[in-house]
Amino acid sequence: MEDIKKPETEAVSKTNNASVLQKVSELIEEVKIFLLSGEAQRRFLSLFIFFIILFAMLIFSILGYCLFYFLYIPQIAHSLPVYFQYYDSIAQPTAEVDLSVNSWRQSGILTGGQYYNVLMELNVPDSQHNYDLGNFMINLTFKNALNETVGYSSRPCIVKYKSFVQKNIETIVKTVPLFFDVAQESQTIYLPLIESYMEDEVQLSINYYKYF
Q: What values do phi and psi take at 196, rounded to 5?
């Protein structure tokens, strides 16, 4: 009985495989006909144009945001060098910083109606002379082109004291960096000078200077 059933099972399996292959080939042929038809091409063209427009809108949105941010959003911070001038007739050194740098974006570095905190970063050598100075004052004055004072501040400052033992230990630890000029025997003092200074919106075209 088993020998008689085996040929029948194989014949049924071959018939099913042929039927599946025929259906797959018919489906592929229908897909080809649809892809080559005018309706499918019109749909693909519409989809392509849609993605092109979507991509262009995305690019223009990014460019518009960047342009708006650059033109109207004020810079979060400004860092300017301060060069002290030493005169024989003046007991203390002074420095002048021009804040009226003009550009096509705005008439000065500061933006009108914005609050600013002015911080001075002072690098001083670890010398005995600076330690002997003790407390010293740093004066800040904002002046316009008419030499009118529009802001003033005076803050005390002092070089951080280091004992003889501490200085010697630091020198020993930094021997190699000091030899290769990677490190320096100096310290940096951060001194807040003015908090919440607001630039006048009406006098944006006036030149401002900063004196120490």
A: 60, 50
Q: pLDDT digit string (tens) for 135-157?
A: 888 888 888 777 788 888 889 98
CA distance 197 to 118: 8
77 within some domain: no
> What is the β-pairing status of strands 149-157 and 96-98?
unpaired
b/e for 176-202, b at 16 or more Cβ within 10 A? Answer: eeeeeeeeeeeeeeeeebbeebebeee
Asked if residue 148 and residue 66 are part of one domain, the reply reads no
pLDDT tens readout for residues 52-99: 999 999 999 999 999 888 877 777 888 888 888 887 766 788 888 888
pTM score, whole prediction: 0.58
> Is the distance from CB of 190 to CB of 160 less than 8 angstroms?
no
102 alpha carbon, distance to own chain's centre: 22
Q: Tokens for 85? A: 């001038």
Q: Can you give the residue range of the structural domain that contains 47?
A: 2-72
Distance CA 74, CA 208 (A): 18
